[in-house]
Design a protein that fits this description.
Immunoglobulin-like, 2 helices, about 575 residues, disordered N terminus, 5-stranded mixed β-sheet, mainly beta, about 5% helix
Length: about 575
């Protein structure tokens, strides 16, 4: 049987070759047949129509040719009528080919298909009755490309993350795809959307696809770019990269805007910078001066930086701009800031001046005098009061006293209106007082009824002439009933005179007191001090002042000095002495 089979195989091959040559261009042969694309290592199903429309017709022989060389046969003739014979070229098809006649249409299945299987497949069908039929299929075996590789502008491979790049900068990446048959199509996508900025060039069975994205913006942060290669329907190989950006601060906000503050009180002001990558550094500024005393924290996602400033504004800060500045030093133009105008409430400050066209040394009785009170306050003062010698001045237009918030006018000023003037302003923060302005009023000399002399009066001196009057008092912090030997004692002599007294003398029991610092006796025109007073300095004290009109004496002040009892040499008795009795026994 084996020699017979061997003989039959050789005979069939010769017959197939004969048919191949003799029927290469016979009727029904279509050298330009349909194209069948099959992915390598999959199953190629090459169709062949073996059906006939004639009754009692049947297939006798099916021969498959590849590039016009027989590679497979299906034979039902003669001895094979009961069991059809299958033959295949083992060198070409190995054991991968099976002809399925029961399928509609019949097909030659190659599983798995190999790259070398690509070519023209012709199926020739011989019928018992019908004319021989030829059909052509051009088999294309698709070899997918390798996994794409992505490189940055410095030709360094990117594994998964690219960057960080500056906001506003450019992204340049190249996708390299090797092999692939037929050459694949390379596509760039951003978040699944096809991108157009692509330049392709190929060499040595390698395709390079360059993607350039200009003016990177916030929408590109964490964008996924995909390089996708395909040379077969719905079959892709791809590589993804995620873009990282350095982002400028998007928004800077101060949370304290338009709220008034009180001077010299402590406040905490919050500022938030949103959208900077990496998180922005926050600084605070008052004009061109950077402020200290603030903290900063960053949210868990790194998107929000928060700074809290502790500030104690002063009245001088009112109206100034307080700025919060967020800086990302890793990106150009990475500074964004916002500012608030400080609204600082403070107690009024006042400046009182005599009218600018008045000479304070040349104001005479009968002149018109006015004062200007300049008030600096926030919020504005709701009232201003004027005082003369600490007494509130009332508006009295008939008397020539004109009072307004910023001005005081004295029409036809008199000698009695001389003295100290102030203004006081009030707002919600409190009351503020001005400086003191002394008003001097010159008037004509006055003669006493019993004195016919006329004295010359300087323009800047008071015009009323009189003998000095004096008021003598023990020091205000001394108790006259509780002065003991060894205490320090002082007297105050107040002199009222015009013209001024040219001398003041002090007397103890009508005896002039001489200055003697060593003995603790300190004499001046208005004061007398007795350091470590003794019992012998008890008695009556006066002061006398003199001017050109005469001498004036003060009232008498008695000094009582208490000391311990003393026993006489010839008297052994002890006498009790009350505190308010003379102590000398």
């Amino acid at each position: 049987m084996e020699p017979l089979y061997h003989y039959f195989s050789i005979s069939l091959l010769v017959t197939l070759l004969h048919f191949s040559k003799s029927h290469e261009h016979s009727d029904g042969f279509k050298p330009d047949g349909e194209i069948l694309r099959v992915l390598v290592n999959s199953t190629a199903q090459i169709k062949c129509d073996v059906g006939s429309s004639l009754p009692d017709d049947k297939v006798l022989l099916v021969v498959w040719y590849k590039n016009n060389l027989p590679i497979y046969s299906y034979d039902t003739r003669g001895a094979h009528a009961g069991t059809p014979s299958h033959w295949r070229d083992e060198e070409v098809l190995e054991s991968r080919a099976v002809f399925h006649t029961h399928r509609e249409p019949a097909e030659l299945a190659l599983d798995p298909v190999k790259e070398k299987d690509a070519g023209n497949f012709r199926c020739r069908v011989d019928f018992k009755l019908s004319q021989t039929r030829n059909s052509n299929v051009n088999l294309e075996v698709v070899v997918p490309p390798k996994q794409p590789l992505i490189f940055n502008e410095r030709r360094m491979r990117i594994d998964s993350r690219a960057g960080p790049y500056e906001e506003g900068g450019s992204l340049e990446v190249t996708c390299v795809v090797q092999e692939g048959k037929p050459p694949p199509t390379v596509t760039w996508l951003m978040n699944g959307q096809i991108q157009n900025s692509v330049v392709d060039y190929s060499y040595d069975n390698t395709i390079n696809s360059k993607l350039v994205v200009r003016n990177l913006s916030r929408i590109h942060q964490h964008a996924v770019y995909t390089c996708q290669a395909s040379n077969f329907h719905k079959k892709y190989v791809s590589t993804n990269i995620t873009i990282e950006l350095y982002l400028r601060p998007l928004l800077v906000e101060i949370s304290f805007n338009n709220q008034p503050m009180s001077a010299d009180r402590k406040y905490e002001i919050e500022c938030q910078a949103i959208g900077s990558r990496p998180p922005a550094k926050i600084t605070w500024w008052m004009g061109n001066v950077e402020l200290i005393g603030h903290s900063q924290k960053v949210s868990e996602d790194g998107n929000v930086s928060t700074s809290v400033l502790s500030i104690k504004p002063t009245r001088e800060d009112h109206g100034k701009a307080l700025s919060c500045r967020a800086t990302n030093e890793l990106v150009r133009n990475g500074i964004r800031e916002t500012a608030m105008k400080l609204n600082v409430f403070f107690v009024p400050t006042l400046q009182l001046d005599l009218g600018s066209n008045l000479n304070p040394e040349d104001i005479e009785e009968g002149d018109d005098v006015y004062f200007e009170c300049k008030v600096h306050a926030n919020p504005a003062a709701y009232k201003v009061i004027w005082k003369h010698n600490n007494q509130i001045i009332q508006h009295n237009q008939r008397a020539g006293v004109i009072v307004s918030s910023g001005d005081l006018a004295l029409q036809g000023v008199t000698r009695h209106q001389a003295g100290n003037y102030t203004c006081t302003a009030s707002n919600v923060e409190g009351d503020g007082d001005s400086n003191v302005v002394e008003l001097k009023v010159m008037y004509k000399p006055i003669c006493r009824a019993d004195q016919k002399k006329i004295y010359g009066v300087a323009r800047n001196e008071a015009a009323e002439i009189f003998v000095p009057t004096l008021q003598l008092d023990l020091g205000s912090n001394l108790n006259p009933e509780d002065i003991e030997e060894g205490d320090d004692v002082y007297f105050e002599c107040k002199v009222h005179a015009n013209p001024a007294a040219y001398k003041v003398i002090w007397k103890h029991n009508n005896q002039i007191i001489q200055h003697n610092q060593r003995a603790g006796v300190i004499v001046s025109s208005g004061d007398l001090a007795l350091q470590g007073v003794t019992r012998h300095q008890a008695g009556n004290y006066t002061c006398t002042a003199s001017n050109v009109e005469g001498d004036g004496d003060s009232n008498v002040v008695e000094l009582k000095v208490m000391y311990k009892p003393i026993c006489r040499a010839d008297q052994k008795k002890i006498y009790g002495v009350a505190r308010n009795e003379a102590a000398e026994i």
